[in-house]
Amino acid sequence: DDIEFSGLRWLCEASLYASVVHRRGLHTTTFADAFTLKSEDFANCVSKSPKCIAKVYRYAAEFIRYLNRQQGNVDVDCTPLSLAEEVCAKLDGSPADAGANLVLSSPAANPETIHKFMDELMAKSLSEQKELEKALPMAFGELAEVGGIYDGLNMQDERRRSLCAIISVIYLLHDNYEAFTAQQSEGNRLTREQWLDIQRFVRWCEFSKEMTHSVIVLLAIRGIGKAPALLQAMDRDSRSPEDVVVMLMKTMTSKVPSVEALRPEQVAMVEHAIEIHRSFNFAQLLQGENTPCHIHGLQEMVQRHGHTDFKFYMLSLVAVMCGIFGTKSLNGSLFLDRTNGSSLLAGIHALLWVEQASPSAVYWGYVGERAAMLGLPFEDIGDLAIARLACLTRARREDINSLKEEWGRLGRGDRDLFMQHLLGDGIHCPTFVLTFLPLYLENAKRNSSVGLYRAFLVLVELLNILTSNGYLDTAKSSVVTVNFQDIALFTGQVESSAVFMALPGHSTFLPRRDRLDLVVSAKHKEQSSQVLWSDDPTQEMRVLLRRMDRRFSSVSREIEKLGSKL
Question: What is the DSSP string of 473-488?
Fold first, then answer.
C-alpha cells in the first residue's frame, strides 16, 4: 500500500548496513527536499572516528538481526522510527555496550627491547615455548594479553593464533622438530622425512635477521584485520582483512606500533606479502578450489615485487597455517601434522616453480602430486578431472573407490559438462570459480539425505544454468567467481532428498561487484526440515528437459566424431 507522509523522515536505513532489494519508489506531491547518504560515504565517515566504530557496528548488526527475524514481514524501505529507538535502548547500558570504548591501541614499541629479543632469537638462546610466550608480547605490544589491540577488540583467539604462528616459525628457523611437534598425536605426527623437506624449504627462503623481524611483525598484526568492527568500517570495495591491516599500517600506525620499529624496506616487504595474501588464496589451491588463472596472477605479483619478497611471502603463509590451531595449544603446531603436512608440502613444491613454469604446469603439478598420494592415475584429461575432484572433496585413499563410483553414475552429458568445469583454466578457457565448493561437497558427504551423487547432479544443473545465462560471455574477465556459501550451509542442514534436488529451481544468482552470490530462497529454506515434500511439476520438468538436452548433445558430439573418422 502507498504511504503518504510529511515532515522529517528517513528511508531505506537498512541499505547502509547490508545489500537490500528496494520494493518501493518515492515521489512528491508538493515541493520537498531529499538528502541521500551512500553506505560507502557513511562507512568512510565512521572509519575516521575509531571510538564510534564498535557502537555503529553493534547497532547495525542488531538492526539487521531484527529485520531477519521478521522473515520478510517488515517494510525495509520504511522501517519505523520506533525500531531504531528500540535497538538503541537494547544496546544502551548493556554489558555488550561496555565494549563500545574499544582500546584500539597497543603498548608502544621499545627499540631496545626488540633489538635484545631479536639478538637472543638469532643466537637461539630464546627458544623455549614459555619464554617465547612471555617475551613476544613484551617486544611486540599488539600481542599483550591485557592492553594490546587484540584485547581491546575482544579477539583473544586471533591473538593466540598469531602467537602460535610466530612460535612455530621460530621452531622452523631453529630446526627444532621436537618442540614443533610436541603436541601432535603419535599416530599422525609430522614425520622426520617431512620435516627434512620443510627444512630444505626454510633454507631456500634464506631468512636474515631483518626478514625474521619483519615476518614476526606481519604475523603479529595480520589477525587484527579480521575484527568485525574494523571490517564494517571499510569501503565495500576494500573490505578484506588484508585491506584493514594495510589501512592501519598507513594511516593509524600508532595502533600497530611494531610497524613503527621497521625500516622502510621492511615495511614494503610486509605490505607486498599482505598484497599477495589478499590476491592469492593458498588454502584454495590446496583444495583444488582455484584455477591456473590464479597462479598467473601470483606470477605477475612475484615478477613485480621480486624474488626476495616471494620467499618472504612463502614462509609467512606456512607460518600462518601453522598457527591455525593456536586456540588449542601454543606448544608447537597442532595443525601441521603428517596429514596436513602432505598437502602443504605438495603446495610448496608446486609454488617453488612459479618463477619458471607456466601457470598450468604449476597448478596441475600440484594436483598431480596429490593424485600420486591418493594412488590415482594422472595420464589423460579424465584422470586430471578426477584428481581435481579428489582435492575438492578432500578425499583420502579410502574414499577414492566411492568417489569413482559416484562419478561413473553421472550421465555422459552431465559428466562432460562437469569435466569441462574441472579442466577450465581461466586463461585460455573462461571458467567459473565456485568458492565454498569444498564445503558444499563435504556437507553433502556427511548428510545421508544428500550424498555425493546428488550433490554432483545439483552442481551440474547449476553449472548449466550459469553457462546458459551467458555469465561467462558478458564477464569482464575470463574467471567468474560464484559464492556457494549459502547453498553449502543449506546442504548440511536439509533433511529431504527431494528438497535438496529442487535447489536449482529455488535459487538465484545475485550479481555483486566482483562475484555472483548463489542464494537459496527464504521459502525453500523453510522446507529444509521437511521430510515429505514435492516440488512444483513445472520446475521438475525444466530440470528434466535440461538434463535430456545435455545427454542428446553429448551423443550428437560422439556421432560427429565417428562420422569424421569414416
Answer: HH-SSSEEEEE-HHHH
- Is residue 160 within 8 A of residue 327, CB to CB? The reply is yes
| 3-state class percentages of the chain: helix first, strand second, coil last, to nearest 5 | 65, 5, 30
84-111 pLDDT tens trace? 777 777 665 433 333 344 456 778 888 8
Q: Judge contact between 333 and 296, C-beta under 8 A.
A: no
Nearest to 140 by CA among 169, 119, 111: 111
Measured CA distances, 13 to 20, 76, 148, 367 (Å): 10, 8, 34, 47
Identify whether the C-beta of residue 426 lies closer than 8 Å to the C-beta of residue 291. Answer: yes
C-alpha torsion angle, residues 260, 265, 270, 276 (rounded to 10):
150
Looking at the DSSP bridge assignments, the partners of residue 434 are 482
Residue with cell 565417428: 562
Cell of 540: 521438475
Q: Which residues pair with 518 in a beta bridge?
A: 509
Contact 142, 148 (CB under 8 A): yes
Q: How far apart are CA 449 and CA 452, in angstroms?
A: 10
How much is the pTM?
0.76
Q: 283-294: b or e for each residue (b if 16 or more CB lie within 10 Å)?
A: bbbbbbbbbbbb
**pLDDT digit string (tens) for 419-458?**
999 999 999 889 999 999 999 999 999 999 999 999 999 9
Mind spelling out the 3-state secondary structure of 291-353?
Answer: CHHHHHHHHHHHHHHCHHHHHHHHHHHHHHHHCCCCCCCCCCCCCCCHHHHHHHHHHHHHHCC
Give CA–CA dist 223/410, Å, rounded. 43
Model confidence pLDDT, tens digit, residues 368-388: 999 999 999 999 999 999 999
d(CA 274, CA 302): 13
C-alpha cell at 407: 562419478
Q: How far is CA 315 from the centre of its chain?
A: 20
- Sheet containing strand 479-483, edge to edge, reads 431-435, 479-483, 516-520, 507-511
User: Could you give the angle at the alpha carbon of 79 between the alpha carbons of 76 and 85, nearest 5°?
Assistant: 140
Burial class (CB in 10 A: 0-12, 13-18, 19+), 338: middle
Cell readout for 400 is 577414492
CA distance 527 to 535: 11
Angle between helices 381-392 and 359-374 (to 10 degrees): 70
Which of 359, 393, 399 has the alpha carbon at shortest distance from 375? 399
The owner of cell 568445469 is 421
d(CA 540, CA 503) in angstroms, rounded, equals: 11
221 contacts 259 by C-beta, under 8 angstroms: yes
